[in-house]
């Protein structure tokens, strides 16, 4: 069981600490003199409170699938932020306690996210099939499917709906487990008193926080610099589909496309981490922060989300095409769909490259 | 070919006119005072001579397929130019005679071009299959094909090689026909004395020619302005594949993609016509002409050639996928190939749009 490690605010020698964190979740911190611990605690209080509220919403949603899905989305949203912020600002926390919480939060977001991911992927592939089947002059989103497209859609529907249903059961099971209850208890602790490293109460927020954000930023820029942005910046480079028909080299190795995508997925995770890190700074600095940086990080993250979604959709189309005894027309439609989604991958890389130029001028 | 008059450019009014085209094909025209008839005749003499030389080369090539193919290419090259220039500068010619020649030249280039087109299309599709099957890290142009890609390649090979062989026979038959002999006789007339409208001998080249070129230029700009260049200018607009799986609306109407491509093909023909028109001007004006315009027209034409080639390759992949009793893996590879080539179509439109901005500043 995790325990709190409460430690009172202690200012550095000679400097009076002007802290006014009274009610958790409604921290009001004086600019410039707030401690790193106070700012971090204020942010985490807020997210932990959101987490617990979403959990209540989920419990109350009952049979309403839409409400439950929205509550799960909010739950994941807070969980991702708490885990991310605990990672960026780790040295300021009681790491023995927070490292374990972080592991559990990553587990939870993984379990809860899968159902949503399958539903979104099916929607994306259905949308693409309709777009590809659109007759000339017909408005977008309408149009009847050809036999091949309709069969491909039905096959994907069957496969992804099954995966979605399984993920739904797994999520419900997770939310009823003792593992989840322990996690919820830990988040409740966070909502009342964040276990910090004692030193965090002595460090000025404006000195300690940017330093840790900088470390995350460097990890991100290193990861992005390793990406083939030169190629991605030339439109229609045909790189994302270059391995579209390549054989898997070994049974236990991922297909070439997955290997090609992996560094982009890593950049996506680091952009997200950097965004959460910025949220803590922004709450602290309020008017000081450069709003355009947050906007650009959001844009960069969205481009990489689209990259991930398209890559996974392409993989699902390829995987469906390996179903035994499908009709050639179905396989043909799935091939077109696969290539279409890989071009979405390429398009997302191009979009990311252009946004990134403005993140690091 | 024409050479500049060593006496240099003619001066303004008052300076004696030093012009005369005496020997066909070696016209020596003074700048500024040459007649439209002389300049046009000089260009056509040159192309007609090239045509007859290529015809001799073709006859002498015997069993050497490569020589025969190169001779046929040169024959088409001259035939296209003569037909194009007779169209642009039609009012300067004896139209009763030249209209018929033009019709026959269009027939010949069509018949001779088909064999080359099928060979080029097969090479393009084979290249794409290899590119798509390339394993990660493998250099371009190498790599073994997966089962689906190999079967798709074999199917395309069978279908396009058959079409190529038929076109080859048709071309040989055409070259042996009395229709072709009549055409060759007409070109021989052109090589000795171009049938011009009597008035063409009285018009100044620098006045009459640019006026006719301008008419062609206006047809071209009208055609290009009707193209959806706004959409094409946004990379990854996914427009070229928008109808990739659309059903043909009626059995006798072309598929949606062909209808979408038609105005681009028309622009391609007009860019080519404009280029040939410019060649006549350039030979006449020599140093005066803006070399960058010719270069840009060439670039624009190449982008639209790629557009046509990719569109036809995509159609061949789609058509091959309708072969009865193919394996799903083959159909899948053909679907990927179809989408890949439609993205080449989109890429070519994007490239054309960028070049066109510099053709009409």
Task: Record the SSE blueprint.
2 copies of one chain form a homodimer.
Chain A lengths: L35 H25 L4 H24 L6 H39 L13 H29 L2 H15 L12 H21 L3 H4 L23 H30 L5 H31 L6 H32 L2
Helix pairs in contact in A: 1-2, 1-5, 1-6, 2-3, 2-8, 3-4, 3-5, 3-9, 3-10, 4-10, 6-8, 8-9, 9-10
InterPro entries (chains A, B): CHAD_dom, CHAD_dom_sf
Pfam families (chains A, B): CHAD (PF05235)
Organism (chains A, B): Streptomyces triculaminicus
Structure keywords:
homodimer, 361 residues, mainly alpha, CHAD domain, CHAD_dom (chains A, B)
Radius of gyration of chain A: 23 Å
Order of helices and strands of chain A: HHHHHHHHHH
The greatest interface here is: A-B, 48 and 48 residues
Described by its quaternary structure, the protein is: homodimer
Domain CHAD (chains A, B): 33-361
Pfam family, one (chains A, B): CHAD
Organism (chains A, B): Streptomyces triculaminicus
Protein name (chains A, B): CHAD domain-containing protein
């Amino acid at each position: 069981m995790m325990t709190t490690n409460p430690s009172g605010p202690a200012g550095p020698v000679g400097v009076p600490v002007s802290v006014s964190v009274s009610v958790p979740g409604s921290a009001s911190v004086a600019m410039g003199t707030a401690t790193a611990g106070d700012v971090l605690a204020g942010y985490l209080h807020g997210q932990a409170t959101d987490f617990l509220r979403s959990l209540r919403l989920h419990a109350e949603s009952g049979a309403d699938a839409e409400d439950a899905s929205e509550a799960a989305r909010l739950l994941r949203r807070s969980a991702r932020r708490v885990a991310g912020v605990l990672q960026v600002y780790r040295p300021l926390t009681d790491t023995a306690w927070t490292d374990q919480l972080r592991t559990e939060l990553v587990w939870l977001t993984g379990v809860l996210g899968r159902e949503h991911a399958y539903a979104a992927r099916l929607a994306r592939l259905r949308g693409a099939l309709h777009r590809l089947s659109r007759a000339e002059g017909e408005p977008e989103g309408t149009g009847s499917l050809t036999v091949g497209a309709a069969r491909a859609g039905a096959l994907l529907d069957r496969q992804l709906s099954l995966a979605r249903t399984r993920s739904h059961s797994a999520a419900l099971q997770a939310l009823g487990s003792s593992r989840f209850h322990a996690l919820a208890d830990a988040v409740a602790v966070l909502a009342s008193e964040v276990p910090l490293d004692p030193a965090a109460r002595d460090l000025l927020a404006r000195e300690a926080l940017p330093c840790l954000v900088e470390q995350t930023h460097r990890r991100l820029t290193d990861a992005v610099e390793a990406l083939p942005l030169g190629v991605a910046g030339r439109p229609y480079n045909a790189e994302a589909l270059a391995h579209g028909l390549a054989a898997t080299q070994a049974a236990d190795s991922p297909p070439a496309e997955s290997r090609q995508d992996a560094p982009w997925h890593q950049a996506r995770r680091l952009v997200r981490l950097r965004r959460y890190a910025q949220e803590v700074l922004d709450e602290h600095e309020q008017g000081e922060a450069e709003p355009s940086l947050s906007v650009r990080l959001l844009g960069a993250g969205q481009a990489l989300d689209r990259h991930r979604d398209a890559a996974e959709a392409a993989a699902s189309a390829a995987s469906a095409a390996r179903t035994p005894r499908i009709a050639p027309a179905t396989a043909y439609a799935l091939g077109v769909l696969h290539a279409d989604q890989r071009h979405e991958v390429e398009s997302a890389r191009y979009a990311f490259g252009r946004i990134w130029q403005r993140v690091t001028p």
